[in-house]
Write a structure and sequence with these properties.
The chain has 515 residues and is α+β, with helices and mostly antiparallel strands. Helices cover 41% and strands 18% of the residues.
């Protein structure tokens, strides 16, 4: 498509028959099992600043969940260093695997092809499943992993979709143009959830919602991600040239099991950002109460999904999504990348949502989950307030193919696939060939022992031959440009030594356009 994008997924974790197991310790154990050799911390944290706000200031503090103080006190008692607790790994496919706030997190490599991104997202499931199998072989403990967003006890963990976009777009315009889309996107991107929840725990059991995260948003825009969550996150970490780019760090979305739902979620958002950069989203899209609307739409049992705009008019989520679709069809090139697939499927899904949402059980997570729960309720003679349904909700997201309910639907051919198992397996081991992730992943494959530190946008090597101070840093800021990425990717393939690579990158860097 027309931009780089990626997905960060925090997985729920528990140990079978060990309800008191420490999730931090288990996450560390899980991640370290990826390698058979000793863990060597390589991640460079200097480029991360979660306090920096893209509105032009640096926050003094971040909002935290009330339970976070408990985790912080426990961390003080641990014998591991900060780096060991994080257990950051860069994988040969260009992805990042690490422990984030007591959850194993898999961050895909940067992709430019929509279906390749979906393959790398699913590759994360395979990688973590294999890590859990190694833990079981070593200790006998059965680690259970869930690609979901709630533990039904007031804790929500994220699935963040990220997009590289133009820095010059005014933030207020970005916010006003994007919030209506994100609030209504859940009608096809939601993962489904039984009950209503808050940071204090479950408030109601009987309601079936479209989305898992909608209960947990409190403000329109903020730099926070863990408490008092915003619909638009303002963290300013572009991982690219900051004068030219910003990274939209989207936290208002669910983790999807369905390949189709993932592709539609990312594809439609990428097209809306195209519209934002063209400045063609009208101001009448603005909602009167975005926080109220995101919750109301998720909980609406009638599927009318109506809410008020700032101009006083009432509109439905399907109609507002149709307005975004109309703009995309008017202004964007359908022949570009996967635009044709996104435009066609976006229209098909909106149309079917208006007729009968339950006919989309082969494509949308929330519909598939509701169909499963409804079938179980009817067969067992239960009511929708039975807490047993929470267990089934959770089982839908279990990434163990032997027990996960979503995988059961896949095995029966009841869900629409976009990928083959061979494509997913390829993504487990190989980075996208057309982005800077190839450069990063191939460095790890060829020169891992000579890497001093690594980040999304730079790598530092140990080299006494080239640099007097014993190290040399290659910036990958400008490698977001596809032509430059191709040059660097060819270079890494041709380099047999670090010194050859460093000399080659210096030559390319001198010919790069200066911004």
């Amino acid at each position: 498509m027309s931009r780089l994008f990626g997905i960060e997924t925090e997985y729920g974790i528990s140990v079978q028959d060990q309800p008191e197991a420490d999730p931090v310790t288990r996450s560390i154990e899980l991640i370290k099992s990826y390698h058979s050799e000793d863990f060597r911390p390589m991640w460079d944290y200097k480029g991360e600043d979660p306090f920096q706000d893209e509105r032009g200031f640096r926050a003094q503090r971040l909002q935290e969940h009330p339970d976070e103080e408990i985790h912080q006190e426990r961390d003080k008692e641990r014998t591991e260093s900060f780096a060991e607790i994080k257990s950051d790994l860069i994988l040969t496919n260009g992805a990042r695997l690490y422990n984030d706030h007591a959850h194993p997190e898999y961050s895909t490599p940067e992709c430019a092809n929509l279906f390749e991104l979906v393959a790398h997202d699913r590759a994360g499931e395979r990688i973590l499943t294999r890590c859990a199998e190694k833990v079981r072989e070593n200790s006998g403990d059965i680690i259970e992993l869930y690609k979901n967003n709630t533990d039904f006890s007031g804790h929500s963990y994220g699935c963040h979709d990220n997009y590289l976009m133009e820095r010059q777009v005014p933030f207020n315009y970005l916010k006003s143009s994007l919030i209506p889309f994100l609030v209504t996107r859940q009608i096809y991107a939601g993962a489904g959830k039984i009950g209503i929840e808050s940071e204090g725990g479950m408030e109601e059991f009987g309601c079936f919602q479209l989305a898992q995260r909608s209960d947990f948003f409190h403000v329109e825009a903020s730099v926070d991600t863990m408490h008092k969550r915003p619909i638009v996150n303002t963290r300013d970490e572009p991982h690219a040239n900051p004068a030219m780019y910003r990274r939209l760090h989207g936290i208002a979305g669910d983790a999807n099991m369905s390949e189709y739902a993932t592709a539609l979620k990312i594809g439609t958002t990428a097209l809306v950002l195209d519209l934002v950069e063209l400045r063609v989203v009208p101001d009448w899209f603005t909602l009167a109460d975005p926080i109220g609307a995101i919750k109301a739409i998720s909980r609406d049992q009638t599927y009318e999904w109506e809410f008020r705009l700032q101009n006083g008019k009432t509109i439905s989520a399907t109609d507002l999504q149709s307005e975004y679709l109309s703009l995309a069809k008017r202004y964007l090139d359908p022949s570009k990348g996967q635009n044709d697939w996104v435009l066609a499927e976006w229209e098909n899904v909106i149309t079917q949502l208006q007729i009968d949402p339950m006919q989309l059980s082969d494509r949308l997570d929330w519909v598939a989950k509701k169909w499963l729960l409804k079938t179980f309720v009817e067969e067992e003679g239960l009511n929708w307030e039975d807490p047993w349904l929470q267990s089934l909700d959770l089982a839908y997201h279990n990434i163990d193919p032997e027990v996960g309910l979503y995988y059961g639907l896949e095995d029966q051919g009841l869900v629409r696939r976009l990928l083959t198992e061979e494509q997913i397996e390829y993504a487990v081991h190989n980075p996208p060939a057309d982005t800077r992730a190839y450069f990063r992943g191939t460095i790890v494959k060829k020169f891992s022992n000579e890497v001093e530190s690594i980040q999304w946008d730079r790598v530092t090597f140990k080299s006494n031959n080239i640099s007097q101070n014993g190290s040399f840093t290659i910036s990958m800021d400008n490698m977001v440009d596809p032509e430059l990425a191709n040059q660097y990717n060819q270079l890494i393939d041709q380099s047999d030594t670090i010194d050859q690579l460093i000399v080659g990158t210096s030559k390319i860097s001198k010919s790069e356009p200066k911004n």
